[in-house]
Queue: 4 jobs
Job 1
Amino acid sequence: MHQRVRKAVFPVAGLGTRFLPATKSIPKEMLTVVDKPLIQHAVEEAREAGIEQFIFVTGRMKTAMEDHFDLSYELEATLAERGKTKELEQLRAALPPAGNVCYVRQQRPLGLGHAVWCARHLVGDEPFAVMLPDDLVLAKTGCMKQMVDVHAETGGNVVGVVDVPREHTRRYGILDVADDDGRLATVRGLVEKPAPEDAPSTLSIIGRYILEPAIFKHISEIGRGAGGEIQLTDAMVRLIGGDRPFHGLRFAGRRYDCGDKLGWLEANIAFALAREDIAEPLRRILAEYR
Ligand code: G1P
């Protein structure tokens, strides 16, 4: 039996400059896909995977997220008074259990590796998930649940991966693959944002990770990498080849890169079309834009 994944780290300190002016005074993680903020989509995916503790690595200007995962007493009282039981139930169902969300600040934007490292004392000595809310996955079974199930069998480290066109390798962490059964790839190496001609494959990491706690020591030892940032990918390289396996899972489902305007717009359409209450009227509206 491998140790169960109970904790998830959500690095949410980024400035969201690609979404200005929308993100001038609200965090990009509060942008909605249909009617839920990105961060709530991520937390719900984590809960479906059995995650019990939610660790947010935040920064200045991010307090809207803390309010979002707190009880809104006035709102609930008003909804109750007006008999809006459906909305009330929705709010209550989305509220994580008391004491299970914690926040730590990344004081400086030093990179994803550094953001994860800021959570080291809250994670402690156990395997944990990292979830980037920018990456949204539409799937029958949540992406993290699929990864946790693989982890229960294999242990070690698991990252969610998708094949990308070779000209896009510069945007992602890319796998060097030792072995591949079409679903699970055994990882031999990783490169952060390689040029297409240098990429060892076209299998790219999405913002879903299950990592051994040894990652924290590795992060503290690596220097700055691609883009002058402390890269999680560079620290993960040091987890490969030890006594624990390292796998990439081609999950079932579709990823939307909501860090990008077009990806976010597409996610809104895809998630709305997956909703019984909106799909049909939306199809009619979309038909007008052909
Ligand atoms: C980060 C990681 C990269 C990964 C990507 C997934 O990059 O550094 O390895 O492929 O997330 O979204 P970022 O999107 O922060 O540039």
Job 2
Amino acid sequence: MNKIDWNELIQAAEGVRQNAYAPYSRFTVGAALKGKSGRVYIGCNVENSSFGLTMCAERNAVFQAVAAGEREFIALVLVAGESSGGALCPPCGACRQVLAEMCAADMPIALVAGQKRSIHRLGDLLPLTFDHTFVDQAAAK
Ligand code: THU
């Protein structure tokens, strides 16, 4: 169950990217997050005319997963569309923080754009993570 089938995740992320709602940036992103259960959770970016309300693909995938009861994750794939000019789409800072809440630092994140690929550990993308340990300490006082 825990084996990572990267092709499965790339296909899922590419599929959901087609549903991205990005009329303002035209920058379409798809995310596929694999849970320990074997289930795959997908998300695309959803923009808003009030720009700050835009939600990224990764966070939509994480929130779907948590709502479904999944709490442990083994891999994430992030696919950017042609609109990225062929560039890989690294997760934004807000998404890194949200991913760090739910996923282990050694979880692999694959970035895909066309034939381009790169793979990173979450912990390398968000070093010196502000996590629950800081809040726990303050709350214990
Ligand atoms: N975007 C994502 O979906 N994920 C990221 O990590 C970076 C940015 C989206 C948000 C917005 O709809 C578009 O890309 C341009 O910023």
Job 3
Amino acid sequence: MPENNKKLLKGRLNQPISELAEAFNASVSFDQRLALYDIQGSQAHLQMLMEQNIISQEEHAIIKQGLENIQKEIENGNFEWQQHLEDVHMNIEAKLIENIGEVGGKLHTARSRNDQVATDLRLYVREHTTYLLQHIRQCQHNLLDLAEQYHSTIMPGFTHLQIAQPVTFGHHLLAWFHMLQRDYERLSDNQKRTNKSPLGSAALAGSTYNINPQRTAELLGFDGICGNSLDAVSDRDFAIELLNNLSLMMNHLSRICEELILWNSDAFSLVDLPDEFCTGSSIMPQKKNPDIFELIRGKSARVFAASNSLIMLMKSQPLAYNKDNQEDKEPIFDSLDTCLDSLRLFAQILPNLKPKKENMQTMAAKGYSTATDVADYIVKKGIPFRKAYEIVGEIVRLAIEKEKQLHQLTLPQLQSIHSLIEEDIYQHITLEGCVNARKHLGGTAPEQVKKSVQKLRQTIST
Ligand code: ARG
């Protein structure tokens, strides 16, 4: 181990750390992901130190160049990360001092790894939240395109996984759109709380130097500072919120994937999933397995676990920073990777999704799915709904007995159950009649789906 590296953290310790403890303590294997954010934070801190006359312009210039050189090394993949230097922060600082000499040691004036790591993590989360938001928007654009294309395609709507009422495929796609819209809103709101600067909090109590925390916040594009040094270095609630929000988002994606898996099965046969996102079986040549869909569904579990892990990590921690918090990074990184990949895949899948329109229509007609509309028809003739409900029960029994769908019953057959039923009933109980009638805002009618698509396009483009 080079002498100056050993010295960086030696302080009052007489004995070197044990080998096992060193490995256990180190986080560099995973927190090196923060490297560029760490340098970004250091450059802002450095600038502020110079502006406040805490370091000279010459020192600033040398350290700035030193950090830029290290950044290049990292970007080119030439930086050698060392476990004995514990984490990303110490690795970069040690290298800086090795390259530019003692002056490099001035960078850490008025700073601690505690406010440094909190800053790095907020920068990382902020940027990745922006990526998430962009990918959600891409999925939403693709959903709107599909909803427009299939605004009048009739499919079965389900409750209890039984055919309930006909809906339009476009309407179902818009349901997915709205789920993602709430995820989008939650994440952007969350980003506001992430976007505060902890820099200047130092270890926990702030700094004795004449620092300007608002200036570093401004240089890093933060929307203000955290406001309390103890809270700033210790809480990770912005990240807990993120993982909770991502859990909800993955819950949505898992439900959507589950629907697609069901619809793609032989039993439903309502969609054809794109081959590019399916795999074959190693033994059964006829198989087309929806692996990617099952994996998005399955990987949601990692995100739920990560969100649990982070809140458990924070629970009961006394103020201020505790080393426990080093354990925050892997669940955050893993969840962000999983969610970004899942969204990327979902966005690519959507334009290639092929509904089997005829099967959708045939299945929608099964299961007496227009029964509610028969009841509504009778109600409009002045009969109370509960009575109409009974009458339709009888009509359905008759249809079962005759082995017919409702619209296949003859007028005399229908009139044998209730005399108020007239010829015009048939307009109301076709699949088209059923969906067309639900034309209010939020309803399934093709004309409403088209209107909603227009409106939602505007919502997401502003
Ligand atoms: N690697 C540490 C973390 O991830 C950095 C902060 C360490 N601070 C300390 N005082 N030990 O949290």
Job 4
Amino acid sequence: MKILVIGGGGREYGIAKRISLDERVEKIYVLPGNGGISEFAECFDIKATDLDGVRDFVLEHPVDFAVVTPDDPLALGMADMLRGMGVSCFGPSKAAARIEASKIFSKDLMKKYGIPTAKAESFDSKAAASCYIASQDYPLVIKADGLALGKGVFICRSHEEAAEALHELMDNKLFGKSGERVLVEEFLEGPEVTVLTFTDGKTVKPMVASMDHKTAGEGGTGPNTGGMGVIAPNPFYTEKIAAECMERIFLPTVRAMEKEGCPFTGCLYFGLMLTKDGPKVIEYNCRFGDPEAQTVLPLLETNLLDAMMATENGKLEETPVVFSDKAACCVVLASGGYPGKYEKGKPISIGVLDEGTEVVHAGTRMTENGFVTAGGRVMNVISTADSLKEAVEKAYKGAEKVSFEGMYLRRDIGKIALDRI
Ligand code: AMP
Ligand code: GLY
């Protein structure tokens, strides 16, 4: 089989690496890929959002199956385009990708179908939003409606902070069109859980639950990032909670999407908060999380490509999706300054890693003299072990073997989970 993977971050490294180990796969193309991916796949410099470029590529390099994992190409209709060319594809249609691409669409969906989530109001006028925030209790959460690289959420502790967030989004257009409409949302409290699921639009098969660490600073401080580290399994997510989520959140969401005429296929990401009133949806993503994917997939015991293909051909119910009972930890190594401004092109040195620990390339470029940094999140150190404690220790030990100028990492990945255990 010839496989096409669209994207070029740590998530695509994790997914493409695993697919490349499948004996049935004779060739794997990754567009655009990154320095590390080019060691085991053929990478071409075509942007993940370049629909025309991808179409022309596929006309010249026919493939049997495509995997589209970043949010922006999905929101632009990459999966529809590929299917239109006769290429079957892992990833939702443009209409279904709205579940992530518009927070107002997903909030309306949850309201309509009674799926538990934070109370919220949406606004397209700054005057109306300003009036509303003046009458609310704090903290309060303000979210850009559209895609914003995971950075479009403002937790506002006071009316001043909320007014500032509205100003940034709606006057200064910090995220361009994405902030033209906003959601003003009730602040929820409780442990956070990410559940990635495979779905073919009817059946939902959850992966092992994980915990992302979103803020740049330790202990939940500093600005939100795309994610600074992950642990799995998430010890807060008990079997009882899992059953409740399946019944009250996962299946109702998939059924709601079908009823709305946009059935969701691919990986549906549930960002949940376990509040004292039960689990609630914080966000949906229309794709695997990054770095959740590269943390959770090493624990998958069954074949990844089979599960992906089953989402496309409606065969998920009879396709096994089994995870080991081991634990995994991912520590993100970022460029100094991320998620704000950072420098690129810093040489990276990587020492010898212990067994059960691997380095996933996220933002790297290969040069004549070795790998250099090429993004905010540069590398992920991923480890698996029998216990979470051991996995966390191994990941940090692995992180010590990597260095580049300005390297930044959080030292508290897994702390909340280990305190709980
Ligand atoms: P999102 O991009 O929607 O996942 O939001 C990023 C982060 O902001 C989440 O992981 C939460 O930590 C936080 N967050 C989002 N919505 C809320 C909310 N309603 N209450 C409390 N925290 C929130
Ligand atoms: N790590 C969070 C996300 O991928 O949205």
